[in-house]
Amino acid sequence: MASLLEWAKSTFRRAPSPHIRFPATGFETINASRILDEERFEDFKKGRYYPVNIGDVFSSKYQVIGKLGFGMTSTVWLARDLAGHQYVTLKVYTRNEASQEEFQVYKYLSQGNPSHPGYPHVRTALDIFTIPRPGGNHHCLVQKPMWESFRDLLYRHPSHRFTENLLRFGLIQVFLALDYLHTECKLVHTDIKADNILQEIEDKSILESFMNSEMENPSPRKFVRGVPVYASRRLELPKTFGRAVLSDFGSAVQGDERRNHDAQPNFFKSPEVMLKADWSYPIDIWNVGLM
């Protein structure tokens, strides 16, 4: 019976989507004197960023559609999972070891109870893989696409303020995420701020619109010593917002170990951290209270 079910699954499984052909012309070439995105960072000058191109396919199934953003240790891209027939984000790390600690945290996140009410409000990993490259490999994190952060929403919303319902339910969901993080994963986030609280995408049409925009108006770009640097493209403002999701676990630590080192954003430091006393899970609650 089991073999029959496996045969049925393999027979009716959808074939992978074909590769998308992106325009090779028609884009703006940015002037060499203009510093663009990650080009401003020292790691770019040292060649530590992976030279991602729109249209690249990684791990035999993730095709890059466009650039969503960048940071000091990574670039972030919208991609299409050709095998899974869904959109994903790829976080491609610079060539260093900093990402190893974050990947370990994602393992802890996946070991918790998925039926916990806070689980859907924590951004977990769908996949982790490595891009080989001479001189050092690059780790890559695959996740569900999210809309922008609470901070971005505040600036992009026409009223420049949160509605009472959005704020109320958003905070409830953040506390559910923290309960999952603290009780199931035994982790302290240590870096809770509006930038790290994302909105789940319910309106999938904004992802289709992103891809259509890339096809019709290819992203501006420049080439630095042959390395492409793309301008980031923003997602449209959705008609409705989904759940609040806690993200960015690069500073997370295990909460059951004794700690008194410096932590938290400067404006949100708890008394324990400022006094260099032992601290643990409660500092995350303090963060939310001051946010």
From TrEMBL:
UniProt xrefs under InterPro entries: Kinase-like_dom_sf, Prot_kinase_dom, SRPK
Source organism, top-level taxon: Eukaryota
Record flagged with keyword Metal-binding: no
The reaction(s) this protein catalyses: L-threonyl-[protein] + ATP = O-phospho-L-threonyl-[protein] + ADP + H(+); L-seryl-[protein] + ATP = O-phospho-L-seryl-[protein] + ADP + H(+)
A Pfam family per the record: Pkinase
Signal peptide annotation: none
EC number: 2.7.11.1
Keyword Lipoprotein belongs to the record: no
Domain Protein kinase, chain residue ranges per copy: 62-291
GO molecular function terms listed in the Swiss-Prot or TrEMBL record: ATP binding; protein serine/threonine kinase activity
Biological process per Gene Ontology, one example term: regulation of mRNA processing
Keywords carried by this UniProt record: ATP-binding, Kinase, Nucleotide-binding, Serine/threonine-protein kinase, Transferase
Family annotation (PANTHER family): PROTEIN KINASE DOMAIN-CONTAINING PROTEIN-RELATED
Designated name of the protein: non-specific serine/threonine protein kinase
Organism: Ajellomyces dermatitidis (strain ATCC 18188 / CBS 674.68) (Blastomyces dermatitidis)
